[in-house]
Amino acid sequence: MVAPSGPVDPDNLARGVAVLRDVLGLEVRMRPDVVARRGYLAGDDGRRLTEWHDAASDRDARAIFCARGGYGAMHLLPRLEPGRLLHPPKWVVGFSDVTVLHAALNGAGLVTLHAPLVTTLGRATPEALQHLQALLFGASEPAPAAAGGVRPGQGCLGTGVIRPGRASGTLLGGSLTMLAHLCGTPWLPPLQGAVLFLEDVAEKPYRLDRYLTQLRLAGALDGVCAVCVGYLTACDADGLTGAAVVRELVHALGVPAIEGVAAGHADHNLALPLGSVVTLVAPGPGEEGPPRLLFDQWSAP
Fold it and tell me: How much is the pTM?
């Protein structure tokens, strides 16, 4: 477990570690200074970078779980060294500020998990934990399918269609704010042909507009093949909803798109395999089935 971003609350950390050990059956290792604090960071850049390199180079580790989001992971990007994760291959797990790590690693060809942080695992729903476990380990026995026929670890359902259609591509994305802040840097992965996932928290509607417009004007959204919108938590203000603003801007991209996927800043946060091939299904009028995101590399034939 690493803390690449903001300082970690010890109580939330302890609850999350208990889930990792008691529910997921993992052996958890962390540095004693994982709860270090330097203002809004989990210790200085040197501490966080050394911690990351030690975890990424650990030959016994099979996953790196990020303790918390907040801010700070961008400082590590110039020395991230994705190759350290390959011997042996490791999952990198987290969301929110961890979006920038996902983006850099996905851009280097690695698959990562947009999934609960350790400090949020104590609040995760049983369904979210079952879904995460299925992605991490594979399902030893097929779990019952949700409405729409999607089993845990094989996909997610949405609540609405923004623009009908069907498309397959590499799943990329995460926090809209962090993606916009990567615009113009070498660490925003090329989104051409991608299924773009977007979520965010505590951003007013005009800011969501600004971030999406920045990405569009920069050409970063050119060639995106589909869009999947997750939670937009606490993003309503001044009589506007964040969902309505994002819906209008995404619709204008002219690609298949769905909304209401249960991923992002909420307790029911379903893990998404970023960097892997997925299929987005946005049923049109008269077509059967719910809007859904299917994980092609995990789904049964």
Answer: 0.96
* Residue environment code for 83-120, b if the CB has 16+ CB neighbours within 10 A, otherwise e: eebeeeebbbbbbbbbbbbbbbbbbbebbbbbbbbbbb
Mean pLDDT over the full length of the chain: 95
Domains observed in the chain: 10-123 (3.40.50.10740), 155-295 (3.50.30.60)
Short-list 234, 228, 210, 202, CA closest to 280: 228
| pLDDT single digits (tens) 218-269 | 999 999 999 999 999 999 999 999 999 999 999 999 999 999 999 999 999 9
Indicate which residues carry an active-site annotation: 96, 199, 265
Q: Which residue has the tokens 């977007």?
A: 198
Integer-rounded Cα Rg, in Å, for the chain is 18
Residue % of the chain over a pLDDT of 90: 94
Instruction: For residues 38 and 36, give the distance between their C-alpha atoms in angstroms, rounded to a whole number.
Output: 7
- Three-state secondary structure call for residue 279: strand
Neighbours of 58 (CB within 10 A): 16
